[in-house]
Amino acid sequence: MSEPIKNRYDFVILFDVENGNPNGDPDAGNMPRIDPETGLGLVTDVCLKRKIRNYVEMVREDEPGYRIYIKDSVPLNRSDRSALKYVGINEEDDKSMKEAIKKLRKDDPDLDRKLRDFMCSNFYDIRTFGAVMTTFVKAALNCGQVRGPVQLGFARSVDPIIPQEVTITRVAIAKEADAENKDTEMGRKFIVPYALYRAEGFISANLARKVTGFNDEDLQLFWQAILNMFENDHSAARGKMAVRELIVFKHDSELGCAPAHKLFDAVSVSRVHPDQPPRAYSDYCVSVNEDALPEGVHYTRMA
Fold first, then answer.
1. CB 249, CB 10: distance < 8 Å
2. Do residues 172 and 230 make contact, with C-beta atoms less than 8 angstroms apart?
3. Of 35, 103, 162, 284, which is most buried by a Cβ count within 10 Å?
4. 229: Cβ–Cβ under 8 A, 6 or more apart, which residues?
5. DSSP string spanning 11-44?
6. Digit-coded pLDDT (tens) for 257-296
């Protein structure tokens, strides 16, 4: 693989939802997540990373070096076994595996590091986001916590949201006995009429070099995944979601030339008509204060 990235990056993602539920809260009947103090909508970092993982898996289709570790219906231990086979451990049952690991560890003190490096080089999401890999064999092997160079925060809506609970009907009756008494069944779904969300993220070239090997090809795929993360993930529940803009700040050095919060403060999102509820992306104005950017930082706007 190519060399790790050499520059630090910070970025802002702007995405919106129309007549959908961007991220339901299972503890609140799946209603859209919301900050109870401000009324602003929330979308978790886990939700956004799931979209990115799904896009990479769809585009690369388990190509060597681009497998996905955290994925649907695949136990982590199944992926872990590929690393064990790499170091010559082919036992299937846990007891034999534990004994083989203990024996190999005595002969090779760097076993944990080799397994970690194998997982980073083979799984894109570990190389990008990191992972807590303590599931190989309980009490026998621990690859430790891999801190990924790419970190995302929660997305927060620019304005307060007012979730609506919509009643829906279904003409098909589930049970034969119920068909004699009613013609339809009732249901409910939550929607947000419109909201623009803002998420902020960080990419550490230092961690990429020291830990996971996240490189320029990985970086370009990451930008591509962000811009397209909703395009192949449409559903009736989520309504119409789209990434409207990705603003990337590139530093001239590995450790960065300015604090991230100063760069994020340079990006302002304001309403075109403050006295009217927003119902489209065109109701907002997004600007970057170039004069506020420190020396050694350059920005790019992608849409």
1. yes
2. no
3. 284
4. 48, 51, 52, 54, 55, 243
5. EEEEEEEEEE-SSEEGGGTTEEPB-TTT-EEEE-
6. 999 999 999 999 999 999 999 999 999 999 999 999 999 9
